[in-house]
Amino acid sequence: MIEIKGLTKRFGKKPVVEDVSVKIEPGTITSFIGPNGAGKSTLLSMVSSLLDADTGEVLLDQQDVRKWKSTEFAKCVSILKQANYINVRLTVRELVSFGRYPYSKGRLKAEDEKIVNQALDYMNLTQMQDQFLDELSGGQKQRAFIAMVIAQDTDYILLDEPLNNLDMKHSVQIMKILRRLVDELGKTVVIVLHDINFASVYSDRIVAMKNGRLVKNGPTHEIINSESLRDIYDMDIPIQEQNGCRICVYFNSHT
Amino acid sequence: MRKNSTKLIFLGVLAIISILFFAFYDIKGGFDYAFPRRMIRVAAMIVTGAAIAYATVVFQTITHNRLLTPSMIGLDSMYEVVQTVIYFFAGSMSIWVLNKYLNFSVAIIAMVLFALILYRFLFRADKYPVYLLLLIGMVLGTLLGSLVTFLQVMIDPVEYLSLQTRLFASFTSVKADLLYIAGTILFIAFIYGYIIMDTLDVMSLGRENAINLGVNYDRMVMNILILSSFLIATSTALVGPITFFGLIVANLAYQYFDTYKHSVLILGASLISIIALVGGQFLAEHIFELRTTLSVIINFIGGIYFIYLLLKESRSAG
């Protein structure tokens, strides 16, 4: 269980995240949504201890994440940030194998290899496992990074806008895989999303932020309605039901 | 991986060949006299070469930049400051110069202190991006360089000549006693390197990925900065500054091996630098007949290679 308590972060004097408290329910997909600059990514970075909070704390299983041993923490929580520039030449398989580092410290056992194979298979990368990352398209590269996180085999998977650079087909593929990770393997996924419809269709819970503050937090069906969305985005967004999914038709809304 | 181990063996054989050439070629007069002296110099070159190669590779891993070396952030200038200050205030006949141990330790301590103060106390390396530290290091290096020039113009010309020989790297007069100390430092550093080898591989993925995989990144950066300062300080105190050398051997190793594994890169870069130093010194002595020194050749080739790398980088960026 991840519990965020009164988290605040300032860059200079400007508060980027202000007094945010959220509980992440285990076994769900929780989407962080909100306009640009709302502090979603910063919040995610603090939860994953990439960034230290100014005040407040993040508890993982009742213990402050800063007190966790970093190796143990890496076996429980994994994060993938949006910009992944690597200046060494790696093959897909080598990158995914790095996901086993918290367990094997670079010396992969047979079991690690097996998990790497599964992760590659999960992301449909088995055929291109020996290609170098710099020869791949943006979407393929993104899938390789997600495969690394899957190989890390953590209970909590935090993803910062993983659908960036991806076309519709691959976006849907990835969201379906995340859904499978939650439904089949009991993982907990926290994801920053820009496309509100992906949040609506695939997530169990939604956390909405605006100007560094939490504005909405609840099950998806309570958030995806015109009224709540107006509070979050300052836009009138009509909603249409389509096969039981609520789709936000925001393309020609008044702003 | 198999291909890389073949390459390593090839470099190893090449290194041994150049060592044998250097040790036995044209040995005239008393073998018992010349041979031990040559071996001391070979040992000095091995220690220096490995130290510089190792320091540069790990330094470039944490800075994620293949054009920066630890010498460039002011360590070489600090060495010049120490020697110049000693000559200026105590003179060339003082115990600070004549006692090799004393001079060696003072130089190492001053350089490591410089790095420590820069990273640990003044700028808290774990709180600021590494680029800021590098810039400050370069600025301080320039400042120290100007200070050195200032002191040098006021120094007695005869003293200055004697000082100058110290400020150029030289493998012709290495004292065996210092080698033991330098060798021990290098040995300890390599043991530490062996322990953190896999962590270094992960760190080359960048800060965020490394933290995600459970590396205590900011503390490791600090440790490695200090480690590389120690290594560079040792090699500089032993033979003098060779600024461009680390840049050449590290980049040659990246090109030749095409891997991210530090076990291969560090070993490979060390072997390349041993070949370059021993082979280069052999050429300087027997082909150029000491009309030029090795450090001049290295800085000449290194400078050209540096420009080549810059052009290549800017082309791939554009």
From TrEMBL, chain A:
<feature type="domain" description="ABC transporter">
    <location>
        <begin position="2"/>
        <end position="236"/>
    </location>
</feature>
<protein>
    <submittedName>
        <fullName>Iron complex transport system ATP-binding protein</fullName>
    </submittedName>
</protein>
<dbReference type="InterPro" id="IPR017871">
    <property type="entry name" value="ABC_transporter-like_CS"/>
</dbReference>
<dbReference type="InterPro" id="IPR051535">
    <property type="entry name" value="Siderophore_ABC-ATPase"/>
</dbReference>
<keyword id="KW-1003">Cell membrane</keyword>
<keyword id="KW-0406">Ion transport</keyword>
<dbReference type="GO" id="GO:0005524">
    <property type="term" value="F:ATP binding"/>
</dbReference>
<keyword id="KW-0472">Membrane</keyword>
<dbReference type="InterPro" id="IPR003439">
    <property type="entry name" value="ABC_transporter-like_ATP-bd"/>
</dbReference>
<keyword id="KW-0547">Nucleotide-binding</keyword>
<dbReference type="Pfam" id="PF00005">
    <property type="entry name" value="ABC_tran"/>
</dbReference>
<keyword id="KW-0813">Transport</keyword>
<keyword id="KW-0410">Iron transport</keyword>
<dbReference type="InterPro" id="IPR027417">
    <property type="entry name" value="P-loop_NTPase"/>
</dbReference>
<keyword id="KW-0408">Iron</keyword>
<dbReference type="InterPro" id="IPR003593">
    <property type="entry name" value="AAA+_ATPase"/>
</dbReference>
<keyword id="KW-0067">ATP-binding</keyword>
Automatic annotation (TrEMBL), chain B:
<feature type="transmembrane region" description="Helical">
    <location>
        <begin position="101"/>
        <end position="122"/>
    </location>
</feature>
<feature type="transmembrane region" description="Helical">
    <location>
        <begin position="224"/>
        <end position="252"/>
    </location>
</feature>
<keyword id="KW-1133">Transmembrane helix</keyword>
<feature type="transmembrane region" description="Helical">
    <location>
        <begin position="264"/>
        <end position="284"/>
    </location>
</feature>
<feature type="transmembrane region" description="Helical">
    <location>
        <begin position="290"/>
        <end position="311"/>
    </location>
</feature>
<protein>
    <submittedName>
        <fullName>Iron complex transport system permease protein</fullName>
    </submittedName>
</protein>
<feature type="transmembrane region" description="Helical">
    <location>
        <begin position="176"/>
        <end position="197"/>
    </location>
</feature>
<dbReference type="InterPro" id="IPR037294">
    <property type="entry name" value="ABC_BtuC-like"/>
</dbReference>
<dbReference type="Pfam" id="PF01032">
    <property type="entry name" value="FecCD"/>
</dbReference>
<keyword id="KW-0813">Transport</keyword>
<dbReference type="InterPro" id="IPR000522">
    <property type="entry name" value="ABC_transptr_permease_BtuC"/>
</dbReference>
<feature type="transmembrane region" description="Helical">
    <location>
        <begin position="68"/>
        <end position="89"/>
    </location>
</feature>
<keyword id="KW-1003">Cell membrane</keyword>
<feature type="transmembrane region" description="Helical">
    <location>
        <begin position="39"/>
        <end position="62"/>
    </location>
</feature>
<keyword id="KW-0812">Transmembrane</keyword>
<comment type="similarity">
    <text>Belongs to the binding-protein-dependent transport system permease family. FecCD subfamily.</text>
</comment>
<keyword id="KW-0472">Membrane</keyword>
<feature type="transmembrane region" description="Helical">
    <location>
        <begin position="128"/>
        <end position="155"/>
    </location>
</feature>
<feature type="transmembrane region" description="Helical">
    <location>
        <begin position="6"/>
        <end position="27"/>
    </location>
</feature>
